[in-house]
Design brief:
Helix content is 39%, strand content 22%. It is α/β, with parallel strands linked by helices.
Length: 309
């Protein structure tokens, strides 16, 4: 992990989307008056004829995206996660997921790491909402390299996708030669004392915890669960069999997110106790992203303490 190089996944998204637009003329991008924050402005400057700012009208954003997809375009619909999955949920459900249309919903500013914007903008339920929809693929990337891969890979899927992105800059974890596959998690380390299953911004925190615990002669493995749906059942069962504990950590409510998904798998396939770290059935609050991760106990220190207790 390159801790000295930090890039926000929303920035990675904007840069790679513009590159993809050069190669695929069917790519169109829509935004709800937040292109500076979501970084779709990079695409807009290069391809103004394939960019649509619908204004502050997120339901319309999803409706237009659905219409464009029905004519063979590949729309990337972008806004903040709270608006995409909250304000426009019914349009996503009935106009995109139900007819199984080829729309890529790319939501930035997810989780408590939105920071100072506070509880109204800190979407902690989006993974729950999106993974509950039939036909929807749900991805939450952990770094710059993985995000750029995901931006390209989802263009190859014929169906709706929800891609969760972050405001906060996070360390680059993977080399550009790393290979990823939708539905296949990444295992980091072979430790047997515990498995930390993480997603998004918490993956780098889990890796930091892994390094600290190693110095204490505690060897854990980290699972980067970048695909929440379809989830990698095989690696979850494998880790439950091979390690002493299963701990999930996410910048999301513990209700309905990664932790719930892991519990669902193990309850049916290999009953195992799962310890869930995340937001404990509460709204967020305003503060610096790093301080909020500490407060809600999803940072590396919290992970270390959880393993040690």
């Amino acid at each position: 992990m390159k801790e000295n190089i930090k890039i926000a996944t929303r920035q990675s998204y904007g840069e790679e989307l513009a590159k993809l637009g050069e190669e695929n003329k069917d790519i169109v991008v829509l935004d709800a008056d937040l292109s500076t924050a979501t970084k779709t402005e990079i695409f807009a400057k290069k391809f103004p004829d394939r960019f649509i700012n619908v204004g502050i009208a997120e339901q319309n954003l999803m409706g237009i995206a659905a219409g464009l997809s029905s004519f063979g375009k590949i729309p990337y619909a972008s806004t903040f996660a709270v608006f995409a999955t909250g304000r426009a949920y019914e349009q996503i459900r009935n106009s995109i997921a139900y007819p199984n249309l080829n729309v890529k919903i790319c939501a930035t500013h997810a989780g408590i790491t939105v920071g100072e914007d506070g509880a109204t903008h800190q979407m902690l339920e989006d993974l729950s909402l999106m993974r509950g929809l039939p036909n929807m693929t749900v991805i939450c990337t952990s770094d710059d390299t993985q995000t750029k891969w995901a931006v390209r890979e989802i263009s190859k899927i014929d169906g709706p996708v929800y891609l969760r992105l972050c405001r906060m800059a996070t360390p680059v974890i993977y080399d550009i030669t790393e290979k990823f596959e939708i539905g296949k998690a990444v295992q980091i380390g072979e430790g047997t004392d515990a498995t930390i299953i993480a997603t998004g911004v918490t993956v780098s925190e889990a890796i930091k915890a892994q390094q600290i615990l190693k110095s204490k002669d505690i060897d854990i493995r980290v699972i980067d669960m970048h695909t929440i749906k379809p989830i990698d059942k095989n690696i979850i069962i494998k880790c439950a069999k091979e390690t002493k504990r299963i701990i999930t950590v996410e910048d999301h409510s513990i209700i309905g997110g990664l932790g719930s998904a892991v519990c669902e798998v193990l309850s049916e396939e290999y009953p195992t106790k799962v310890e869930r770290m995340g937001i404990l059935d509460s709204f967020g609050m305003s503060g610096k992203a790093e301080e909020l991760m500490q407060y809600y106990k999803i940072d590396y220190n919290a992970i270390v303490n959880k393993v040690l207790c």
